[in-house]
Design brief:
This protein has 350 residues and is of the alpha+beta class. The protein contains 8 helices and 13 strands.
Length: 350
């Protein structure tokens, strides 16, 4: 009778352990990392299939929407969030502003040799909490490990899939002259939270990232019956770059009112200190809505009634302009061009 030897595998040391090259080898160490960390916190019926992809229910009526985003934020942890929840929120929002209901996420991790398992566990737990709260499961993923010095701790790429029902499609091509431009809240919170943490800037009121999943707010806005033409989340490049993108797509011009732009005093102070313009600073929990002027007040009221839209404001209008300029009436009554972001104002913020 032949006896089989059982190999004892010590559990992951989530307090002092580190990522090593074996965790990306495809062998026993990688399987243990997936089972004891990723599957433990992100687990659901689809991820439990254990295959190279996930077999998912057909969405039925409508068209599929797919979006992908890579996250390289530094620092990895910041006031109001971390790279984990950010990677979930950012991709959900990219799907939702297309008019789609987000259904599923995938997650790909690039881990650097020597990265602390405790930090990785914190990130994965944050992702799991964000996905649960949003009701959008992470159904498949991948992990790779690179040598020490060839990464920066962890990079995360998430892909989202959703379904948009007939008649619900939204696009940056749909802005029309006469439309109203709304934002769901204060500008620049995320970018300045990152910069304040990175530069060790202390303010009497701490700046906290606005990272959040916006599909609940968008669902409430759609349910209002307002005629919404465009939704967009103003992330890298901020509001200014987002509006320039939409103006070019739709072949229109825009006029903003500086006095109506919602900016927190602490964010404004930080921007002034660093020589930045909050119009170009990233947001991760805000949206731009362009709607028919007749529905603007109704839509604004619905946004303000939602927890993620309490500081919503109407900030401008769309008009005909062959040059597709975005302009702004300043607080002194003059006008200035709000141009595209030139160069990289804030690197590594999402």
């Amino acid at each position: 009778m032949t006896q089989t030897r059982k190999t004892y595998i010590r559990p992951l040391d989530l307090k002092t352990g580190q990522i090593d090259m074996a965790h990306g080898s495809g062998g026993r160490a990688m399987a243990q990392l997936i089972e004891e960390l990723f599957a433990k916190h992100l687990g659901n019926e689809y991820l439990a299939q254990g295959d190279d992809g996930a077999l998912l229910p057909h969405p039925g009526e409508g068209r599929l929407v797919m979006a992908t985003d890579s996250h390289v934020v530094s620092p990895l942890f910041f006031p109001g969030g971390d790279i984990g929840c950010l990677s979930v929120h950012g991709t959900i929002n990219d799907v939702a502003v297309m008019g789609a209901e987000p259904l599923y996420l995938s997650a790909g991790f690039i881990l650097e040799e020597g990265f602390k398992l405790a930090d990785l566990a914190r990130i994965v737990q944050s992702m799991a909490a964000a996905a649960r709260e949003a009701g959008v499961p992470i159904v498949t993923g991948d992990t790779k490990v690179v040598e020490r010095g060839k990464g920066d701790g962890v990079f995360i790429t998430t892909t989202g899939v959703g379904v948009v029902r007939p008649g619900n499609e939204l696009s940056g091509r749909n802005a029309l002259p006469g439309d109203a431009i709304l934002v769901s809240g204060t500008l620049g919170d995320h970018g300045m939270a990152i910069m304040a943490e990175r530069e060790s800037l202390g303010f009497e009121s701490p700046i906290v990232s606005d990272t959040a999943a916006l599909h609940g707010l968008i669902a409430a806005m759609r349910a209002s019956g307002a005629e919404i033409h465009v939704l967009r989340d103003p992330t890298r490049g901020g509001l200014a770059t987002t509006l320039n993108e939409i103006a070019r797509q739709s072949g229109v011009g825009m006029m903003l009112q500086e006095k109506n732009l919602p900016v927190k005093p602490e964010v404004e102070a930080a921007c002034e200190f660093l020589g930045l313009d909050p119009l170009y600073v990233a947001n991760e929990g805000k949206l731009v809505a362009i709607c028919a002027a007749a529905d603007a007040e109704k839509l604004l009221a619905v946004m303000r009634a939602h927890p993620l839209g309490g500081a919503a404001a109407m900030i401008g209008t769309v008009h005909e302009d062959a040059h597709h300029f975005v302009q702004m009436t300043t607080g002194f009554g003059g006008r200035r061009i709000v141009d595209w972001l030139s160069g990289e104002q804030l690197p590594r913020i999402c």
